[in-house]
């Protein structure tokens, strides 16, 4: 994998997939970006430049681990853009990576083209998801064979009496089949320190970010999964309302990884927006 130097000297890796105009892709987790794959075939339409966040995948562990903080990861995205000599690339952020992408757009609007936020984590803009919202969404899956133990685990987590996150994994996919199980296992973050420090104090300044994106001039896609328990459609719709020029799409039958549940539908929506 090619590498470049972050502002603090940490060597960061990225991979390039496909041909055409570039889209810089920021993964969630923080986890090895391999879980994004080629985003369901989006690489057939655009050249995907997929960053491995520091301490994940092929990127080095930084000497200063406080640099795992979300707002500081924005500098790594800018360093990648500068390294590749891209003037104003389109930017795609998934899950927690959307927190990085939206803070990048707020800080560097002159360097941001189209912005695609896929099942976005909303902490950067101060949107919270209640346990009751998640519970209501989970009940839509009550006829699934895996539902009883998964729902019991969710109730325990919501009530503060449990922490079996693996047990609620089916709620993050549109279908809990062998492919989803494999993807879930392979997408688990390996660097727990990076996960713990991602949202450390100072990582998010929601009021300032909201003010900046209220003046954002470029088009924005906010794509939700119908069944996504991580960022329910209602939260993504609220998020879309913060931008002057936003397109909100709820992908039917999808969870937190919409390219996994319906690659054709995901690519059709995302490629059309990026086009």
Properties at a glance:
275 residues, alpha/beta, 8-stranded mixed β-sheet, globular
Extended strand count: 8
Sheet-strand content, in percent, reads: 5-15%
The first-to-last residue Cα distance is 27 Å
Largest sheet: 8 strands, mixed
Query: Fraction of residues in helices?
Result: 25-40%
SSE blueprint:
Blueprint: E1 3-5, E2 11-17, E3 22-26, E4 47-51, H1 70-84, E5 90-94, H2 96-107, E6 115-118, H3 131-138, H4 147-159, H5 178-186, H6 192-198, H7 206-213, E7 220-225, H8 233-240, E8 246-251, H9 258-261, H10 263-274
Parallel strand pairs: 3-4, 3-5, 5-6, 6-7, 7-8
Antiparallel strand pairs: 1-2, 2-4
Question: Your description of this structure?
Answer:
This protein is of the alpha/beta class and 275 residues long. It contains ten helices and eight strands. The protein has an eight-stranded mixed beta sheet with strand order 1-2-4-3-5-6-7-8, with helices on both faces. β5, α2 (96-107) and β6 (115-118) form a beta-alpha-beta unit. α1 crosses α2 and α2 (96-107) packs across α7 (206-213). The two termini are 27 Å apart.
């Amino acid at each position: 994998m090619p590498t470049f130097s972050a502002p603090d000297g940490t060597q960061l890796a990225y991979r390039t997939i496909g041909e055409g105009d570039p889209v810089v892709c920021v993964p969630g987790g923080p986890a090895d970006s391999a879980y994004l794959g080629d985003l369901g075939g989006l690489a057939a339409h655009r050249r995907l430049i997929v960053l491995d966040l520091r301490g994940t995948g092929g990127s080095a562990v930084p000497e200063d681990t406080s640099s795992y903080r979300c707002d500081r990861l924005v500098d790594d995205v800018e360093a990648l853009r500068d390294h590749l000599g891209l003037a104003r690339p389109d930017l795609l952020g998934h899950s927690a990576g959307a927190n990085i992408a939206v803070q990048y757009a707020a800080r560097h609007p002159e360097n941001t083209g189209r912005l695609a936020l896929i099942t976005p984590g909303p902490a950067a803009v101060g949107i919270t998801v209640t346990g009751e919202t998640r519970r209501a969404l989970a009940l839509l899956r009550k006829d699934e064979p895996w539902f009883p133990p998964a729902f019991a685990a969710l109730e325990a987590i919501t009530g503060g009496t449990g922490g079996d996150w693996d047990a609620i994994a089916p709620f993050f996919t549109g279908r809990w089949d062998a492919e989803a199980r494999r993807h879930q296992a392979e997408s688990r973050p390996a660097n727990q320190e990076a996960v713990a420090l991602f949202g450390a104090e100072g990582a998010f300044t929601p009021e300032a970010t909201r003010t900046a994106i209220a003046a954002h001039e470029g088009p924005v896609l906010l794509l939700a999964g119908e069944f996504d328990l991580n960022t329910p459609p209602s939260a993504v719709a609220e998020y879309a309302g913060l931008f002057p020029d936003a397109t909100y799409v709820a992908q039917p039958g999808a969870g937190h990884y919409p390219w996994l549940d319906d690659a054709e539908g995901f690519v059709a929506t995302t490629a059309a927006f990026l086009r």
